[in-house]
Amino acid sequence: MTPRHRRFALIGAGLCVLAVVAALVLNAFQSNLVFFFSPSQVVAHEAPQGKPFRIGGMVVDHSLTRDPATLTVRFIVTDTVHTIPVVYTGLLPDLFKEGKGVVAQGSLQPDGTFRATEVLAKHDENYMPPEAAAAMKAAREGMNDKTFEKPQP
């Protein structure tokens, strides 16, 4: 093999190794990608069934219930238009409160309940996750558009 052929072989092998590494990194990134959905989007069946995603909105007042025997907590998340019941087993963040913004990560169960594996709460009194704020604004605007629509004859 001439030095020129050897050089081309090394460059080709290096490119193959680089392609394999890039494919592995992209695969890992895609498998860990988690999307955000509002309760209205979940009700509209836009959220993936059986795959993890994030849901966000406000915790409905007086919806928080705790199982005294376990760490299981149930609450309802709303975007002011639709609500989704959430079940979480574990310790809630200190800043978690009813009437405040929350983002929960988990998956939707066949019965329509969201089974959370992680719950994230706001960090000050004025904060709401940007995705949740945008989703609530869009839900309110969609509700207002439907409220003022006149039926067509």
Key traits:
153 residues, alpha+beta, OB fold (Dihydrolipoamide Acetyltransferase, E2P), five-stranded mixed beta barrel, 3 helices, 34% helix
Task: Describe this entry's structure for a reader.
With 153 residues, the protein is α+β, with helices and mostly antiparallel strands. The protein has 3 helices and 7 strands; from the N terminus they run αβαββββββα. Strands 2-4-5-7-6 form a 5-stranded mixed β-barrel. Residues 146-153 have low confidence and may be disordered.
Furnish the topology, listing elements before pairings.
Elements: H1 3-31, E1 36-37, H2 39-43, E2 53-59, E3 65-66, E4 72-78, E5 83-89, E6 101-108, E7 114-121, H3 130-147
SS summary, helix count: 3
Alpha-beta classification: alpha+beta
Elements, N to C (H/E): HEHEEEEEEH
Unreliable residue runs? 146-153
| Average predicted confidence as pLDDT | 82
How can the largest sheet be summarized?
5 strands, mixed, barrel
Percent helix, as a range, is 25-40%
Order the strands across the largest sheet as they lie in space: 2-4-5-7-6
CATH class of the largest domain: Mainly Beta
Q: What does the overall shape look like?
A: elongated
User: Which homologous superfamily in CATH is the superfamily of the largest domain?
Assistant: Nucleic acid-binding proteins
Number of strands: 7
In the CATH hierarchy, what is the architecture of the largest domain at level 2? Beta Barrel
CATH fold type of the largest domain: OB fold (Dihydrolipoamide Acetyltransferase, E2P)
Number of domains: 2
Taking the alpha carbons of the first and last residues, their distance comes to: 83 Å
Beta-strand residue percentage: 25-35%
Work out the radius of gyration. 23 Å
